[in-house]
Amino acid sequence: MFFQSRFDCQGSPARVVFGPSSRLRVGEELVRLGLERVLVIATPELEGVAGEIAGALGPRAAGLFVGAAMHTPVSVTEARMARLGDADGLVAVGGGSAIGLAKALALRSGLPQIAVPSTFAGSEATPILGETKGGEKTTLTDLRVRPDTIVYDPLLVSSLPPRLVASSAMNAIAHAVEGLYARDRNPVGSLMAAEGIRAFAAAVPRVDADRADLEAWSMAQYGAWLCGTVLGQVGMALHHKLCHVLGGTFDLPHAEVHAVVLPHAIAYNEAAVPELLAPVARIFGAETAADGLHEFARAIGAPTALEAFGFTEADIPRAVDVALARPYWNPRAITREGLSVLLSGALTGERPARAMFNEDTETVK
Ligand code: NAD
Predict the structure, then answer these.
(1) Domain region containing 105
(2) How remote is the CA of residue 348 from the centroid of ligand 1, in Å?
(3) Distance in Å, CA 57 to ligand 1 centroid
């Protein structure tokens, strides 16, 4: 049971359209929102499906832009902003990069958005926007950036290459796992978090075994929606902070970094809040949440070592400095030594070093 005797909770009012072929219902959703001229946004890899959606909208598609980029560079947003013309809405087709550009444009223009996600990153369900300028990534939370409608079609995720399926699933699971110990957690958010992890634990091995298993792709999208909703509802902690540093300062790929770091960050925090992470251990049938996540990541072929992305031992002190520069809440006090041990484990992908994390388990309630 996830009962709490006290909590505040802000539900998400976004409309969700879920199911096979739902991408063909984007037109209906334009009518519902009263939109007549929408800009369709994607990354280059999604040009085909974004073009199909734009084509189905006919004259209601004001244009198709396939130049969205990872970490939402402000330069791309500003160039596109200058050419918005008479568009009265935005349709993002793709992962967090396409959705990020639509959010950045919505922030500046006030235009409504429809998100058609193609990864499990979960950005479509949050009022959060991360943008990069001059090599620095900043994040803001603003209700104007939350998409009004989300259209989940399993066909869109079913083209994900296997390695991205694994990384993106771990990225989504990370939102749920950190949601379980969030300072502002609530019982419904925790239910969604556990159910989201359960959905991925069941679905990813199925799509790995049979890429034509549409029900399993849908189940994974169900997980992505739940985990993304948790991300939009409660505050994240050490794991997301570290991934933000590794992505922003070292330009490492987003989903892959989440996949590598998660078991190590959770091993660090599990020493302080084992009871809050017990549902994760149970879902994966492991002794600890960290072990369960480590084994699951290996089983589904997710990357497990930062060194595979060019991060080296010499980078650890700088990463620790940047992570410590701005204090943030975490269920366990963060120390320089602890972070160094954590990143050393993530560097090579060894099993999370439980014994090294068991010394002082100061818990911050
Ligand atoms: P992404 O959107 O950058 O996609 C990764 C790569 O995979 C891209 O090259 C993309 O074109 C390709 N791709 C996407 N879907 C595909 C598919 N179905 N088939 C084949 N190729 C596909 O990656 P992402 O992990 O979805 O998103 C990462 C970005 O989103 C980061 O900038 C991150 O900060 C942001 N993000 C934001 C939030 C939020 O709430 N604001 C949440 C999660 C992620």
Answers:
(1) 15-157
(2) 25
(3) 24
Residue 363: its pLDDT value, please?
46
Q: Do residues 144 and 171 share a domain?
A: no
Q: Which residues contact 111 (CB under 8 A, 6 or more apart)?
A: 84, 87, 88, 89, 90, 105
**How many structural domains compose the chain?**
2
Task: Please choose, from the candidates 166, 359, 335, 127, the residue with its C-alpha nearest in 3D space to the C-alpha of residue 259.
Answer: 166
List residues near ligand 1 (CB under 6 A). Answer: 43, 45-46, 70-72, 94-98, 100, 118-119, 121-123, 126, 128-130, 156-157, 159-160, 164, 168, 171, 231, 254-255
Residue 220 included in any domain: yes
Do 343 and 315 belong together in one domain?
Answer: yes
Q: In order along the chain (365 residues), what is the average pLDDT of each group of 10 residues?
A: 92 94 97 98 97 98 96 95 96 98 98 98 97 86 97 97 97 98 98 98 98 98 98 97 91 95 98 97 98 98 97 97 91 96 95 63 44
Handedness of CA 299, 281, 262, 358 (dihedral sign): negative
Same domain, 27 and 132: yes
Is 348 inside a domain boundary?
Answer: yes
Separation of 97 CA from ligand 1 center, angstroms?
5
